[in-house]
Amino acid sequence: MKIAIASDHAGYRYKELIKSHLAELGHEVTDHGCDSTESCDYPEFIRPAAEAVARGEADRAIVLGGSGNGEAIVANRVRGVRCALCWSVETAELGRRHNNANCLSIGERQVSEELALKIVDAWLTTPFDGGRHQRRIDMIDAV
């Protein structure tokens, strides 16, 4: 799977951890930054990762920050991107099953490294349920 990844300074450490994890799993990862823990403006990095999904250059995106809120907001401004802010395996699974989330947002200050990797794995492997959920996604796409 082709995965775009991006973070701000507060999510940089987990971005690097998750990037390595994805490579070990055999995924093709494109890093859209940032490149350090120095303070930066997250929209500058999150938007290109989300746009890669919208253009079909990436199958999915993972965005990271301190809380993950701002990153999810930016990603969700890009038409065709459905970004789920996840803090548990269950929220990641539901984001995929019910919302066909093609973007995952995680807050580095909210979850442990171990949990972050479990969230990523659940999000990568959980299928979309379709059915009534597709009807709702169609409604979202019409907004």
TrEMBL record:
Gene name of this polypeptide: ywlF
Designated name of the protein: Ribose-5-phosphate isomerase B
List of residues binding D-ribulose 5-phosphate: 8-9, 66-70, 99, 109, 132, 136
Source organism of this protein record: Botrimarina mediterranea
GO molecular function: ribose-5-phosphate isomerase activity
Enzyme category, top tier: isomerase
Keyword Acyltransferase: no
Repressor is among the record's keywords: no
Family listed: Belongs to the LacAB/RpiB family.
Reactions mediated catalytically: aldehydo-D-ribose 5-phosphate = D-ribulose 5-phosphate
GO biological process: D-allose catabolic process; pentose-phosphate shunt, non-oxidative branch
Domain of life where this protein originates: Bacteria
NCBIfam families assigned to the protein according to its UniProt record, in alphabetical order: PRK05571.1, RPI_actino, rpiB, rpiB_lacA_lacB
Pathway noted in the entry: Carbohydrate degradation; pentose phosphate pathway; D-ribose 5-phosphate from D-ribulose 5-phosphate (non-oxidative stage): step 1/1
Record EC number: 5.3.1.6
